[in-house]
Amino acid sequence: MAIVKPFKAIRPTKDKAFFVASRSYEEYGPEELQAVLQFNPFSFLHIINPGFKFEKHITGRERFHLVRNRYLEFLEENVFLKDKEASFYLYQIEKGDFKSLGFFCACSVEDYRNNIIKKHEDTIHHREELFADYLYSVGFNAEPVLMTYPDNPVVDEIFQKKIQREPEYDFTTTDKVNHKLWKISYPEGIEKLQNAFNGLDALYIADGHHRSASSHLLAQQLQNENPEHTGTEPYNYFMAYLIPESQIKIYEFNRMVKDLNGLTKEEFLIKLDGHFRIEKREDGLYKPSKKHEFSMYLEGEFYLLHLRMTNYAFTDALSQLDTQILYKTILEPILNITDLRNDKRIAYGYGKHNLVQMKDRIDRGEFVVGFSLSPTTVDEIKAIADAGLTMPPKSTYIEPKLRSGLTIYEL
Questions:
Q1: Which CATH number, 3.40.50.720, 3.30.1760.10, 2.30.30.320, 1.10.340.30, labels domain 250-396?
Q2: pLDDT of res. 147
Q3: Considering the entire predicted model, what is its pTM?
Q4: Can you tell which superkingdom this protein's organism belongs to (predicted)?
């Protein structure tokens, strides 16, 4: 039984939503970041980058406290207002032929602890602690965890009726993405949504494993500090954006390696032959078309690698994942890359044009060999999460990517 809870969001006023909404901090280059901070005083980036006000790069606890101060300033100046009634927040993102319609809610750390909210990635403990410390200091959660659920006709009916009405927000950002947000605050709609999710055995994290783990850590800390803890306090929940499985988009990460671990091209191909049937492609850029096939670019040529099923055993859901197959058959045994997260010899690329970019980087001599895979599927993510397994790093690049600052959950 999955718990979803409405909450009283802190939100920008309708006339300022366009200016407040920001992409993830890491997505901005230095020049673009500087321009936004200089010319848009309402951007949420001012809250998470408070040092700009003092023309100083600020880190650690000092930054955390200044983030809190900038947040309070946005409230004091009525850039942000707090909703008077607890609501679910229906949010639609649309760009070109991609559209997603999900909702912001509060999810239970108890569900995370009890594996009702399921994960498929490992987290790094010091990052969990750092973000938990951040949340403790700033007192709010502005980065939702993206989770997915099976398509549900009851939920869909509520959503389709709601989007016929005028939204609270309706704006298009400079990257040509349209954003719309509606409040679901009427008791009947809230009850129907909660009942629909009460019937689910699990929710699956798509993006935000460290955010959910940090919220769990924070809840444990605040529970210990509160002698009158009841379990209903806001810190027992974290903000999430829930989206049906059919509306999530998963892209692959390619892998690029700087050397062949001392092997010549011929020696490398011979070693590959133990696990793959190798076919040289003469038709330029080649992207694999099905599972357990890989595209390889080496010395100006593309190759198709077909996995030899007789030489590889499927033992569980993880062993069937293409990123794991590539790791166990090539990256680890042949190229001696054991730490996919920290080895400086390997890099990753994603996006619509990542195959072209991989080829260009290898042609420029930055890397020697590159591998392209088919995207991971939602069913694969669920199978690995259900089995309590974890994917290799950089197995999925998932959309939608959410804007920061449109709904804020106070802890």
A1: 3.30.1760.10
A2: 97
A3: 0.92
A4: Bacteria
